[in-house]
Amino acid sequence: MKASIAQINPIFGNWQANLEKHVHFTDIAIRNGAELVIFPEMALTGYYLRDLVPRLSIGPDFSILKPLLEMSKEIDIVTSFPERTSDFIFHIASVYLHRGKLVHLHRKVYLPINGMFEDLKDFKKGSEVKAFWVKNFKCGMLICRDIWHLDTVTSLVLQGTKIIIAPSAVPLRSIGDKGPGIDSFIERTVRSYAEKGTCYFIFANRVGFEEGICFYGGSQVADPFGNIICKMNFLEEQLAFFTIEERRIEQRVSCLPLALEQEDYLEKLV
Question: Before 180, cis peptide (omega within 30)?
Fold first, then answer.
């Protein structure tokens, strides 16, 4: 499956402009033969919404996603936004759109409230991490800080997930000779999860500035052997393509069946 990451700079608080940006990048992905395009965390609104959360959150009918749902008849789309439930609870959410339908919604489980982050002041934690089937692959989604906690990743691996998608909004904190200081940590994380989980791990980060904070990009993908097969530029809006191969998953399982051993452990727990 040919897939893509749209490493975009969302326009703060502007639903319409960000929706148009999604359509633009999705159209390019379609014209290049991609079957999946992935956007970063809060790609439809921007991140530091604070008092704008009630006005910019969508749901529970998701009608504003209609243009993307229509495009998902040609290409699968992953995007993220603030969600409002029917009982007026707010979450940071990511959705997977497939064949004109919203087939999966993930609510961010771990909401940071340290340093520059204030997620818990505006949003409620998600309560579950579930795998779902798309085409021949069992997929799972996490959002940013979720990937820094072993339990969320392990949960997806134990459910047999072969593609983990992680829309993110990781900021730039320091710069060294090799670029953003956080980047080496992210790469170690992505490679390790992919290799030990026998899966493709997709980290889709954003770029741009909000409230004086810089988001650095550097989106990347690791295959089940822990190889980085896609690495995107720093600080640059960009669309990149990569291939998800069922054969690579099969090869990894045949030479080191870690996921199967973990499934046996899960059965013992149950």
Answer: no
How far is the C-alpha of 256 from the C-alpha of 19, rounded, in Å? Answer: 43
CA distance 255 to 77: 32
Give the predicted TM-score (pTM) of the model.
0.94
Cα three-residue angle 94-100-101, rounded to 5 degrees: 50
Instruction: Enter the tokens of residue 51.
Output: 């008092």
Neighbours of 86 (CB within 10 A): 8
Question: Cα-atom radius of gyration of the chain, to the nearest Å?
Answer: 17
What does each C-alpha distance from 197 to 6, 46, 130, 142, 258 come to in angstroms?
25, 31, 15, 14, 7
Q: How many residues does the chain have?
A: 270
Q: What is the pLDDT of residues 7-66, one digit of tens each?
A: 999 999 999 999 999 999 999 999 999 999 999 999 999 999 999 999 999 989 999 999
Encoded amino acid at 135, one letter: K
Which domains are present in the chain? 2-269 (3.60.110.10)
Strands 90-98 and 76-84: antiparallel
